[in-house]
Every structure is written in C-alpha cells, then in structure tokens.
Amino acid sequence: MYGGRITDEEKSTLSTYIGVGVVTVLAAGAVYLFFVAHEEKVASTGFDPNRAVPGDDVVRHRLKAEEFSVVRLGTTQMPFQNEFWDNQRPGIYVDVITGEPLFTSLDKYDAGIGMPCFSKPIAPDLITTVQDNSHDMQRVEVRAKRSNAHLGHLFSDPNSPTGQRYALNSAAFHFIPQERMELEGYKAFLPLLDKK
Known about the structure:
Elements: H1 8-44, H2 56-62, H3 65-73, E1 91-95, E2 101-104, E3 108-109, E4 117-118, E5 127-132, E6 139-144, E7 150-156, E8 164-168, E9 173-177
Antiparallel strand pairs: 1-2, 1-9, 3-4, 4-8, 5-6, 6-7, 7-8
C-alpha cells in the first residue's frame, strides 16, 4: 500500500479472503443444521422406552397443529375426513408423541363410523381410560399411558371381536407400514403382525 490506496491486486486478494470466509461460514452452518436435524430425527424415530417423554413445548414444535390439538387439547377429528379411517395396509399405529406402538392393523376393523377403530390395543397396560362427561355425554376416554396423549374413546360394540370399539383419532398416530418397520426402528415389533 502506498499513500493509503489499495491496489487492484490487494482488492482481489481481499475479495478472495472474504469469499472464502463467507463460503466457510455457510458450509459450517449447513453442516450444523444437518446434524441438528439428524439428531432430532433420531430422537423421534423408532421407540425407545428409556427416552424421556418430551414436554409440551417440544411436542407443539414437532407436531402439526391438528395433531397437537387432538393429543393435548382433546379435540376430535371429523369422521371420514381423517388419514387412517380407511387405511387397510398392514402395519402398526404408534403414539405421535413417543413413537410407542399402541395398535396393530390386525386389530383394526371397519365400524362404519369414519374413524380408525380397533378391537384392542397391543397390550392393555399401554393405555389408560378415564370417564369423560364432556359435551353432555357419558363416554370413556382413551389415553396413551406413557405420553398421556388423548387418543379417542372406548365403546361397547357387538360387531367387534372383543365386544369393544376403540374409536380413535388418526392425528394421534403415525402409521408405520409393515415394509418400513425395520427401516424406521421397529424391527422388534414385526412379530405383532404375524397372523393369529
């Protein structure tokens, strides 16, 4: 530099350093975001009984608005206008909050009400039931025991193989098709789908 002026060569070198710096920062940011996204996906893939149940702030962030409204606010989806009411694929239905398998396609049946209906859960101790007297009705509410997610309601049903109908909200579940169970961390649950 002579007399405080920057030469064209110095400008070019400075531009190169700035460009390399910007590219480095952007690349580092992209790598960081990739690992954060990967960690979140790992944290929400499959079921780990030792994984803590996420708090409501995390749940609100992870779930779609309708899912959060169903599992945390106890709303009910519209019949025939929900994702799994007519799903007939083999697989498992897992808690949208924890990923815990709660119901299988083997126990799903068409009750004609436009909601996914099951004759029984995978195991009785995975759910809890509580009296629900809201909306001037006397019903039995079904909740996931581990996450306390509102799932739907339990009714008597002579057309069910068990005499019980678990009429549930699609938004309370993620469906894991049988062909993706191993890939998504549910290999240990494949025997649940063996024909009885």
